[in-house]
Amino acid sequence: MAGALRPALQRILLRAWTGRTWLACLLWPVSLVFQSLVWLRRQMYRHGIAKTQRVDAVMVVVGNVIAGGAGKTPTTMALVQHLHAQGLRVGVVSRGYGRHNSTACIEVLDESRPEDAGDEPLLIRRNCQVPVFVGPTRFDAATALLARYPNTRIILCDDGLQHYGLYRDLEVCVFDDRGCGNGWHLPAGPLREGWPRSAVARVGQRADRLLVLHTGSQPAFAGYTAQRSLAPFAVGRDGVHIPLEALRAPGGKPLMALAGIAQPEAFFAMLRALPLPLAQTLALPDHYAFDSTSSILHGGYRLICTEKDAAKLWPLAPDALAVPLVFKPEAAFFSALDTALAPLLGAKLSSAHGHPTT
Question: What is the CATH number of domain 46-227+328-350?
């Protein structure tokens, strides 16, 4: 019952956060407490009471300031592919949300299980084929990555924009069409921290080393944009690509779309726009484990899911199909990224402890 209620509660809050609704106003006093705690924590890092740790690589943190997914992991994968194509040695670190042993620091491999690695780190590893580490802290994960792959020059941190314990050289803040919502902090609004940031509010970071990327179709304010679409094919457990046209052919099983992501309805809408005739949809909590999904619910359907969900769903439904997301930031975003990284990479190379160029 709790699992069924959670998506409903999330939808209620998302609706409340679109404006200063009665529910948002009711929660506003609580948000002042949250805002004060955020401010106090930031002051502790600014004045050295809490320590920020550095690693011997250029650190790029990809995150957001609003609750819920806005496209951090697709952005991280796009950055990995862009940097890797330039011959740069890149690694990725994460906390690995949802994994069973959150205290373990491990390398994520192609054969890793989602419950050990986390669904998003496993997706990054399988799609990008670069070193990926998860740990109890992102600093622990980055330290372990560099110990195993010492020539890594750039580490991307998937999520962690508010994790001030890890020094970052560059930040990429991701927004979807919600923008900042009603502009209030949690739980009265979606903000984890105030926006826009001021140079004073930043903790040990240069104000010019922040890139804003909008992953939706209607950016709420200035920033770079990205296009999102679904691939024209689905992928089976065996890696075989199946054209989506084949799923529209008459006589097949009716299609049921499942999604355990932050905004399942967005995935369903993209499937319908292809168009795919969806007989049923099932919105599940973000990072849903699928271990409690009854086969009775989907026994007569052909299942369609996201790539993030596939590794967890396939053990229960081997014939399920995953439809990959095609995510393309605009060229100007990558140009700005390269411009920001150039002096950082140069500083590392000139350091006595910098990484070699090969």
Answer: 3.40.50
Q: Copy the structure tokens of residue 30.
A: 């609580």
| Boundaries of every domain in the chain | 46-227+328-350, 232-323
The SS3 call for residue 136 is coil
State the distance between the two ends of the chain, measured CA to CA, in whole angstroms.
54
User: Which of 163, 114, 139 has its CA nearest to residue 55?
Assistant: 139
Neighbours of 49 (CB within 10 A): 10
- Residue 155, number of CB atoms within 10 A of its CB: 28
pLDDT in tens, 36-68: 999 999 899 988 899 999 999 999 999 999 987
| DSSP string for residues in 139-173 | HHHHHHHHHH-TT--EEEEES-TT-TTB--SEEEE
> Which amino acid is it at 178?
R
- For the entire predicted model, the pTM comes to 0.90
User: What are φ and ψ of residue 295, in 5° steps?
Assistant: -65, -20
